[in-house]
Specification:
The chain is α+β, with helices and mostly antiparallel strands and 341 residues long. Helices cover 34% and strands 24% of the residues. It is built from twelve helices and eleven strands.
Amino acid sequence: MNDGLTYRDAGVNLEAARATKARISRLVQGTRTDAVSSDFGSFGGRFRATPGRELVASADGVGTKLKIAFMADRHDTVGADLVNHCVNDILVEGARPLIFMDYVACGVLDPDTVTSVVSGLAAACRANGCALLGGETAEMPDFYAPGEYDLAGFVVGEITYPELSRRDLEPGDRLIGLASSGIHTNGYSFVRALFFDRLGLGAHDAFPGADGSVSDVLLRPHRSYLPILERSLEAGRVRALAHITGGGIPGNVDRVIGSNLDAVVRTDCWPRPHEFDVIARESGAEEAELFSTFNMGVGMVAVVREGEAGRVLDEIRGAGCEAFMCGELVAGSGRVHLEGS
């Protein structure tokens, strides 16, 4: 029996990340101006550009998922990962994207690789209705290993759904989980430690128990929830959203529910995608470790009034995404309780 793998074993220390975030909070807050209207730690930063208009900005990267793109020599999906992740983050704050900019850094410029990356960026920008305004391609000899690069992105949007930033939530509100398209862009240090180091698989080997290769499954792009939620948002039926990224469901739902509510999430209310069953079985990791590392099949959680829940479920499913009633809010102190796992 293998010892259960943890994210820390794979080189990622979540406690250190939280401690660092707490230490830099005061530095960031010291730059605050009167036009800043969001708190440190939000999914995106809100800024009042002119009276009546509020902008939201966010920045992110693809993380070590890029290592799998290098192994597979496949670069057309990571750009979509980046755009969709950033768009989801500002959507949580009630914003639609206006512009996107990218940063690609490499040791030696390979025009075919960069073109493939940017093709994914451009396709995702078109799908989300935002302009790829520009970016930077930096060639930095001796800084990156041959064939490797880093990728980051910056999105700016405008508040369109202000009810999401108010978050006037109350006990009895329902939680709806929107299906992920796979692992998305978090937990890949764990994934690489498991599949490539512990199991000895290659990027082009068959994924255990599934059609397609390891890279086919692990490079599946991060889903954008903007077109999926658009109808419900336009109708004002969604009260809050939590994008399930690093920290999983517990580490992201708690960011939107406030300090006087708890979220009860029933993890047996949705079918766990096959790749997460494989990760659980082969890693031997505790359920708590898995749920704090991965999205476990739910990429976004929507908070809705009880009377609107059925209609929102129908609208999400009608937009082509599976969704599940997976819990509710209760009086509490800002905690997330997982039941059934």
